[in-house]
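This part of the workshop introduces the protein records we will be handling. A record pairs a protein's sequence with a compact description of its fold. Comparing a sequence with its tokens is the quickest way to learn the format. The record below serves as our worked example for the rest of this section:
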Amino acid sequence: MGVIVYNISATSAKVSWPRSPDCLDTFYSVMYDPNWNSLLMGYKRKSFMHEERIPVSQTSTHLANLHPQTAYFLCVTCQAANPSSILPVFFTMSAYDKPNQSNQLDFLNKKPNISPQNM
């Protein structure tokens, strides 16, 4: 699933993904966690600290109450699916950095889209 994380700030981020016609459930699960140790032991639903349930009519959400300068594992699945064995990682900014819409990670293309003025 091509997940894009954008508008990344110190404490929040927006996540979007393409609609999945194969998802016959009523919601998507957006799971994220900064705890690398529990996730490296195995990619299981119970390993994720946070899980948001998003109706299948939506293909984006806003993640709030994140910790500054922290790496988060992220997984978006159909309700009944298990997490992928390859999970994207995104990093929140410092509390002193200003959020910018060009701070985006496109996990479908596996490359950051970060403008030079933010480096």
Q: What stands out?
A: The CA atoms of residues 43 and 107 lie 18 Å apart.
